[in-house]
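Throughout this review, each integer encodes one residue's backbone shape. One record appears below.

===
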Amino acid sequence: MKENRTINILVVVLAALLLISSVVSAADDQLVIAGIYKLGDGTWFIQEGKASQEVVEAANGKFMYMDARMDGAQFLALIDTAIAQHVDGILTCIPDQNLSKVTVDKLKEAGIPVIAVDDALQTEDGTLLAPWVGIDGYNIGLSVGEWAAEYIKKNNYIDDEEFAILLLTADTISSVVPRTEGQLDGIKAVFPDFPSNRIFKADHDTDAEMANVAASAIFTGNPHITKWLVLGVSDEGAQGAARALESAGIAKDSVAVGLGGYLAPEEFAKKDSPFKAAAYFSAKSVGGTAAQQLLDYLQNGTEIPERFAVSAIIVEPDDDLIEIMPEYTTDK
């Protein structure tokens, strides 16, 4: 009797141990993907990270969202943290592209694959050091430039000495430079002789505060211009410029155009905001595509494409934004 009871206890214990072992093995087998973003509290990156998380979790993986806060040292510390936690792969938008090589070298040594999102991991001459998923910057900029040319034509601004264009640039970010080039080419295609003394440029790092400061300096320095067409390289840039136009008292006859579209519903809802258009492209598309490519590589060995770019459409206040950009207008 005692022997049977002992055997039964041993069987139960053995079964429990096997169950624990299987749980641990399952946990060990779970893929862990880290998303390390240069501006983790920005709307674009929140949406992008959410899209990546949904794809990873649908594959029974775990997604770690990390914010570098536009700080290079913080970014490298997060890379080290991800390596120490033995993540299986990384998606990242780097805060400073000068850190590309050290980032890729660290991950290569650790055997962790990486996909750059939005801003490429690259050398000084533009050679990619890792696969990249982002937007078709030049053609998106070109579509904005074409919209801008139509706006100038519609309002008869070509010969108006009180009208000027401000290109809010970010020349230190490789993925952003083509956006401005496309904008200018789109305008020049229609108005090849547009006066150069009525085209201004101001550099910022794509955030609203710096855009506000940069735009304000241009507006203050050119008080004879009362009608501005501001073309941003991000929604934050256009939003910062919109506030600068309002502060300068010249918003009524001016327009700011964003890139991204994620702040458009908020701005369009403000009756007097000069933020009147944006090139919408999907953070969900970027984040979801990058995550799926990484999972396909980790699970099936599928080669990751060197480049993948999403396109955009121009949105204005009268458009059906719920239909066009549900991720920014609904709780979906």
